[in-house]
Amino acid sequence: MKKNNILSMVLDEAWNPDLQEAVEDFVHHRTETKHPLTVYAAKRFNRLINKYRSWKYHDDDIVDAIDRSMRNNWRDVFLEPIPKDQHRERILNANSKYWDLYTEEERNSLLQ
Q: What is the rounded distance in angstroms from the CA atom of residue 11 to the CA atom of residue 33?
């Protein structure tokens, strides 16, 4: 399958431009290292990135993980779920980049 078709399966318009660029770079990196994503892997990779976002990772954190994967020549991107006790610390500072990742209800329950 052509690279553009794979990219269209991986990319999500809801992602910020930096995250989209990092994912594009990762797809190109996989192709250049002779391990291109298959159609199935492209769909799963999209779900993986969205899972990381649902774990309340900021897009910058995901971009950093993608960059680390490419630097280390890994074939996947690795992030661990955020421990429950760290969620509170992440939103205590209202200026934190993580503040907007949580709904008002989630923030209120974590700050109690």
A: 20
The answer to whether residue 1 scores a pLDDT higher than 60 is no
pTM for the whole structure: 0.81
Element (H, E) at 52: helix 39-54
- Distance from C-alpha of 3 to C-alpha of 103, rounded to nearest angstrom: 36
Task: Please give the Cα distance from 100 to 112 (Å, whole number).
Answer: 18
Parse the chain into domains and list their residue ranges: 3-71, 82-112
- Cβ(66)–Cβ(78) under 8 Å? no
| Integer Cα distance of 92 and 35 in angstroms | 42
Burial of 77 (0-12, 13-18, 19+ CB in 10 A): buried
* 77 neighbors 26 (Cβ within 8 angstroms): yes
- What whole-number distance in Å separates Cα of residue 27 and Cα of residue 3? 8
Answer positive or negative: Cα dihedral of 55, 93, 22, 64: negative
